[in-house]
Amino acid sequence: MGDPHPAAGSRVLVTGGAGFIGGHVARRLADLGADVTVLDSLRAYGFDSAKRFGVDEVAKVIEGDVTDPETTFPLVAAADVVVHAAAVADVAACAEEPELDFSSMRATQTVLEAARNHAPDRLVLTSSAQVYGARPVNGGRFSEDDAPGEPGTLYANSKRWGEAQAGLYAESFGLPVTTLRYFSVYGPHQVPKPGSHSWAAALFSVRALRGLPLVVHGDGAQVRDQVNVHDVARATVEALFTSEAIGATINVGTGRATSIMELARAVARVVPGTRITYGPRPEGDPDGAAADTRRMVDLLGVSADTDLEEGLAEYVSWVGENMDLIPASL
């Protein structure tokens, strides 16, 4: 037997740990022997996601608002390391209700202040490839050293602010921060929401299972880096315990650019009989790009190598078993 993972025996706080990505991070940490506490408002889905996703079986779940210092500060003080994954992870919802997006910024500020006061060994901040903006890159890759583009959305702007604020806290107070930029994450426990257009894999899968055609906007040549949530959880956990990652900003993706048309065809192979149709391309829909993953591989030792079709098959199976969670409007 090899040496135990550094997570074994560590006390870890995961904010937003009852959500899609945070829940997978919490489960992986628990599997590695960590003592996991989750802080989550449990308001994101309209059902008890901690119970439905099984997070309450592997972690101590605290229902509370991350923006509340009286709740957050003691939990950060009791943790060795912290993953800050709490956010309103819905671009459309943030556009419709800007105050929701601002609440994510308040949550990040509260966690940073808690960490400044209580000095955990590591803080991992989860961000998004949205910070790169909507610049067309002709199928290239986004590197962490690329200057962020114009944000284009409130959601992207709040993520940029969070990264900048965390960087200033690191510089001013010596906070050991690692920032992860997630690309297009998909997988079990992803519940698409009405009006959200950023989760193509989830939306296509749900429509296919309901016998509805997959609507490809434009010619479908726009690309996304579709990264499986299990690979994202692995990268996030390694970022918590890799000293070389302190102070780094790291893309989390596959490094492969998958066109929307390729994605639709992959879903159609997983759900035979699915039809593909076409619709107008929305204004501002970015051409997209894949992640430059060299830093993730070099610093974290992680390759996001889950086969797309196998990952989609797992997700389709989960959706089929949990169709009651999917909004009827989808």
Structural notes for this entry:
This protein is α/β, with parallel strands linked by helices and 330 residues long. It has eleven helices and 15 strands. The chain has helices at 20-31, 49-52, 69-77, 91-96, 98-118, 154-173, 200-209, 229-241, 260-270, 294-300, 308-321; strands spanning 11-15, 35-40, 60-63, 81-84, 122-128, 141-142, 177-182, 184-186, 214-217, 223-224, 226-228, 249-252, 258-259, 276-279, 290-291. The chain has a seven-stranded parallel beta sheet, sandwiched between helices. It starts with 10 loop residues before the first strand and ends in a 9-residue tail after the last helix.
N-to-C CA distance: 47 Å
CATH fold label of the domain at 11-191 and 227-255 and 293-306: Rossmann fold
Largest sheet features: 7 strands, parallel
Question: Percent of residues in helical segments?
Answer: 25-40%
Record field, number of beta strands: 15
**Low-confidence sequence ranges:** none
The multimeric state of the shown protein is: single chain
The CATH C-level name of the domain at 11-191 and 227-255 and 293-306 is Alpha Beta
Global outline: globular
What portion of the residues fall into strands of 2 or more residues? Answer: 15-25%
The overall pLDDT average reads 92
User: How much is the radius of gyration in Å?
Assistant: 19 Å
Strand order of the largest sheet: 3-2-1-4-5-7-12
Structural class: alpha/beta
At the fourth CATH level, what is the homologous superfamily of the domain at 11-191 and 227-255 and 293-306?
NAD(P)-binding Rossmann-like Domain
Give the H and E element order: EHEHEHEHHEEHEEHEEEHEEHEEHH
Write the CATH architecture name of the domain at 11-191 and 227-255 and 293-306: 3-Layer(aba) Sandwich
Q: Quickly count the helices.
A: 11
